Amino acid sequence: MNSKPDTDRSMRGFDKTPEPPGARAKRGAQKDAQKDAQKEDGASRRTDASADATPTSAARARQPRRLPRDDHTAQADTVCGVRISHPDRVIDEQSGTRKIDLVRYFEWVAPWLLPHLQKRPVALVRAPEGVGGELFFQKHATRLELPNVTQHPGLDPGHEPLVTIDSAAALIGAAQMGAIELHTWNGVVTNLEKPDRIVFDLDPDPVLGWDRMIEAATVTRDLLGELGLQSWCKTSGGKGLHVVVPLARHAGWDDVKAFARGVAERLADTHPERFSAKMGARNREGRIFVDYLRNNRGASTIAAYAPRARPGLGVSVPLAWDEVGRTTGGAQWTIANLHERLDALRADPWEGYAQAKQRISAALMRRLPRA
């Protein structure tokens, strides 16, 4: 997300791409696979990414290792020091993905995922019985302890502590407790009252074709550009796209939300046949809802490289703008095929994001009268 990768070094670790999680459940245990697993079990390398690491620098510091092909080795059900209960329980009937497959995915993708989680309060969507069962949305620490997460009392008055996930062990701990989705706030715990990004969640009427989503993201980017703001895009892992605007920590929550609402309403006013700035299925018929409410204090958005608790386990994936037109859907990448994209990357799709210290100034607000 933050810096251009050193191609030779940052991609070297992905030469050892794991089999897609879930594939092992469909294969018999072959002798040579068992030998590979035993060798790689003994050679596993786990080093937490630092709190200030960029995705690409984290990838260089902590290369993903190939997942063992045979889960029945001596250490199979202990990952990053966390004991995994019921590892073979299927959590997604559609893909056959088991709990241990999700755990191994989190372990593997940690160098890419952790920089998007560092210091940000995280809300979890827990699916103890899998994606077909009841889902639980958890924003705060509870008596059901999440192994290795960091608690931050006092940041959300009147509530239990907020939590952050700052290490691979915390990722695995969340997965052990049934977490699949990881949603992050638009601010960090060290300066929580000054958000450092705006998120526009482009949420389509399900009848619309994907070409309309590509068009909507491009129009949103162009309007933001006219206002002097750079933006970046990612898939939602579900049915839409997210347009993200990084900010310097300057304006407060109310001003940032007001600006986001102004942008959404400008899009709806200018293109009423394409966009809606009002919630509700009726207001979204044949159009795309520009969800600016993601910018409330306490609201959250699925983190980049985090999966969704939906059949197929789609993943939210950062894109370069010149890639958006070639995408096929919000859940184009899943925990089973994300390795194909990471293998093919030769540059950071969000290059320049961290350097874009943009401000919502009073003059900028005046350009959106409703803001």
Beta-strand content: 15-25%
Gyration radius, to the nearest Å? 20 Å
Major beta-sheet overview: 6 strands, mixed
Q: Helix segment count?
A: 10
Helicity level, as a percent range?
25-40%
Task: Please mark out the parts with pLDDT under 50 across 5 or more consecutive residues, or reply none.
Answer: 1-75
How are helices and strands ordered from N to C? HHHEEEEHEEEEHEEHEEHEEEEHHH
For the biggest β-sheet, the strand order reads 13-14-10-12-11-16
**Overall average residue pLDDT:** 84
Describe what is shown at a glance.
It is built from ten helices and 16 strands.
Structural write-up:
By secondary structure, this protein is α+β, with helices and mostly antiparallel strands. The chain has a domain of 183 residues. Helices cover 27% and strands 15% of the residues. It has ten helices and 16 strands. The strands form five sheets. The protein has a six-stranded mixed β-sheet. Helix 3 packs across helix 4 and helix 4 packs across helix 5. The chain is globular. The N terminus is likely disordered.
